[in-house]
Specification:
The chain has no helices and 11 strands. It is mostly beta strands and 115 residues long. Strands 2, 4, 5, 6, 9, 10 and 11 form a 7-stranded mixed beta sheet that branches. Strands 1-3-8-7 form a 4-stranded antiparallel beta sheet, with no helix packed on it. A hairpin with a 6-residue loop joins strand 4 and strand 5. 30% of the residues are buried. The model has no long low-confidence stretch (mean pLDDT 97).
Length: 115
């Protein structure tokens, strides 16, 4: 079955960087767009970034433009989110999402940014 496993989260100071990874299995990864979402405590899940199946069609939420970079490795079935210039308001649980059928979610990886 479809499996998405996020990693790379952690605690970082404001201005720091983290690189999130999402390892995919159970489907033809190279055929589907992928996205990152996040959910902060007490808030709704929100879109962060998306990337098309071949690496084009990249979109970002206004709040992360310039600071975050989404990429993918179709040979390694992995999608990445490079996060630079992190702010306390970036603190959230970050989820990987596969645009396949009804959609599939990972379990999330926690990112905490201290001021």
């Amino acid at each position: 079955q479809v499996r998405l496993v996020e990693s790379g989260g952690g605690l970082v100071q404001s201005g720091g960087s983290l690189r999130l990874s999402c390892a995919a299995s159970g489907f033809t990864f190279r055929s589907y767009a992928m996205s990152w979402y996040r959910q902060a405590p007490g808030k709704e899940r929100e879109f962060v970034a998306s990337i098309g199946s071949t690496g084009g069609g990249i979109n970002y939420a206004d709040s992360v433009k310039v600071r975050f970079t989404i990429s993918r490795d179709n040979a390694g079935n992995t999608v990445y989110l490079q996060m630079d210039a992190l702010k306390p308001e970036d603190t959230a649980l970050y989820f990987c999402y596969a645009h396949r059928g009804a959609g599939s979610w990972g379990q999330g990886t926690q990112v905490s940014v201290s001021s």
